[in-house]
Amino acid sequence: MEWQEISGNWVYLPKQEIIGIVHFLGGAFVATAPQISYRSILEQIAKAGYAIIATPFLNTLDHSAIAREVLNRFETVLDRLQTTNKLGKRYLPIYGVGHSMGCKLHLLIGSLYDDVERAGNILISFNNYPASRAIPFVEQFNITPAFNVEFSPSPLETNQLIAEHYNIRRNLLIKFTNDDIDQTIQLNPVLRRRFPDMIAMRTLNGNHLTPLNQEIQWKAGEFFTPFDAIGQWVNQELSRSLYSLKKEIIIWLNPMSAF
Hints:
The chain is built from eight helices and eight strands; from the N terminus they run βββααβαβαβααβαβα. It is α/β, with parallel strands linked by helices. Residues 137-146 and 226-235 have low confidence and may be disordered.
């Protein structure tokens, strides 16, 4: 099975029986082509039996509008896949998986829309910074005080929405050991106050870009060189981090897969 563009989404259906659906939203500056930038991790999840629907988006200041748009496109393609019977006829749980800004969008969807059906959300490397930090070079522009450059909702408003209205009970939060822009630590208690026994948090080796790692088969030349040794070591480290991420996601989605 190959990636297919359907109704403004990128869809990857596993060859085996489908046991669930994953709606994936990526980070702000890599979300336009998730089928490329997140290919390895998404295809590994698909191999466990999950249909992948990755919705690309362009980042703007209006995050509420982006959340509404990606939700509409997801529901459109879901209806089309169900109508054409590509997902089978039985009930399939739907999980949201987000990385970086994709986490914020899933949190907004779960806070602004009561009728959204989700069996759970996986939130990887959440961050909710103001525009002054999230947008490169924005502080270098000469902007008058009357013109406020900020996301909508703002970080404070986003936290309030989550604390008061977020309705997805089961959540897995993942942070990495070497991630200076991660705010999962701040999100964790907010979600635990809403659903005390339904929030799991994992800390894995890696950094903010770990979900973007790609599996590369390193081939040494005719003569094994120090460059080959370094290349293989780097590839092994990247593969190890990606494998750990995949393992945590798959076990949380389907705890029986651990046995």
